[in-house]
Amino acid sequence: SVGHRRQRRMRLLEKLKDAIQSRQIDVALQPKCDLSSGRHTGFEALVRWRPGGVAVPPPELISIAEEAGLICELSEIIITRALSAMAGFKHAGLEPGTMAFNIVAAQLQQPDFVERFITLLDVHGLAPCEIEIEVTENVILDRSAGNFASILRKSREAGFSIALDDFGTGYASLVHLKQFPMDFLKIDRSFIAGILTAKDDAIIVRTIISLAHNLGLRVIAEGVETTDQVKLLSNLGCDLVQGFLLARPMSEQQAHKYLKTIHKTGSYLRHQMQDCLKYR
């Protein structure tokens, strides 16, 4: 019931305030890889929170944090955690590649957003060129979109890469793509899930890849779970993939082990994916 849901949100909000204060928020890292070379290219940082050992779905957590005005504090914990992990990987002689972060409208409304981010990078001995800022279509359709565009341009000038996440699920048009400084388009997992069975999904994916390449953008496919999806995406010219086939989101320790394995073996993809690439 509505009342029940409201009570749950209120309970979670109280716990979230405590968790943010005590920084009891975890980060999960999901690897991405380059389809043409099979090499690991970086991670996406994802929020994880398990009050009392029970995981709260990230969309619910983010919605509560946004509603309560806590999203910037929550995001700063995620950014700090992931940058610390990245610095640790590099210190151990591993190559983590880039780290991607989902950035929401409230963060882009901070006038010193870029400066704050660069300060955090400096603390960990990292550079903006190692970071990707991901924004969803909602951000570029926001009333403050013009302001956001200038902040993203400033971010890009500072060396950050910009990705448009969940592309194809909202109402962003070509006009928006022209207005915003983008380096990557991320195809939403809902299209990838149907790419082999729904003709429309395959057409949409092909069109997005072609459009992106014509605009000088690279394409990342999210939610890749089967070798057949990889084969098709590879044939369509998709640039990067992430998803369960490659690896599930992992803890810092697991990511360290993952990087160590690929560093040692030179194998930048699991065997299933290497088999796929033979058939290109």
Task: Describe the 3D structure.
- With 280 residues, the protein is of the alpha/beta class.
- It has 13 helices and 8 strands.
- Strands 1-2-3-4-5-6-7-8 form an 8-stranded mixed beta barrel, surrounded by 4 helices.
- Helix 8 links the parallel strand 5 and strand 6 (184-187).
- The radius of gyration is 19 Å and the shape is globular.
Please report the number of helical segments. Answer: 13
Structural class: alpha/beta
**Residue-averaged pLDDT:** 89
Order of helices and strands: HEEHHEHHEHHEHEHHEHEHH
Number of strands: 8
For the biggest sheet, the summary is:
8 strands, mixed, barrel
- Tertiary shape: globular
Helicity range: 40-55%
What distance lies between the first and last C-alpha atoms, to the nearest angstrom?
51 Å
Query: What is the gyration radius calculated from CA atoms?
Result: 19 Å
Assembly type:
single chain
Taken as a percent bin, the fraction of beta residues is 15-25%
In the predicted model, the low-confidence regions spanning at least 5 consecutive residues are none
Strand order, main sheet: write it out: 1-2-3-4-5-6-7-8
